[in-house]
């Protein structure tokens, strides 16, 4: 069984920074893509950033230039450095992973609240 455990969420003022971490554990042969989604109240879950096995990266337009995704392959951990946070970044942030057989896994979510 695979588990994704997020940490690093919290309350921050607009303009501030937070760093999210997500560690994967369990029966993992190899990972393909790791990333972050978010879901604000009343809105659909959306992709924030993703990083592929070879290092390719995608960002949502709304976070480009402010958020940075990175991964530690040895630790099977993905990070999301969030700078210049805005109130519209307030959401539950979910870690996601696709392994090489193509199975999709979610973390339990961590709340990020940005006060204006």
Can you walk me through this structure?
The chain is an all-beta fold. Helix content is 0%, strand content 58%. The model has no long low-confidence stretch (mean pLDDT 95).
Brief account:
By secondary structure, the protein is an all-beta fold. Helices cover 0% and strands 58% of the residues.
Main sheet record:
7 strands, mixed
The radius of gyration over CA amounts to 14 Å
Mean pLDDT: 95
Along the chain, the helix and strand elements come as EEEEEEEEEEE
Q: Tell me the fraction of residues in β-strands, as a range.
A: over 45%
| Number of separate strands | 11
Contiguous low-pLDDT stretches (5 residues minimum) are: none
Approximately how much helix is present in the residues? under 10%
Distance N terminus to C terminus? 40 Å
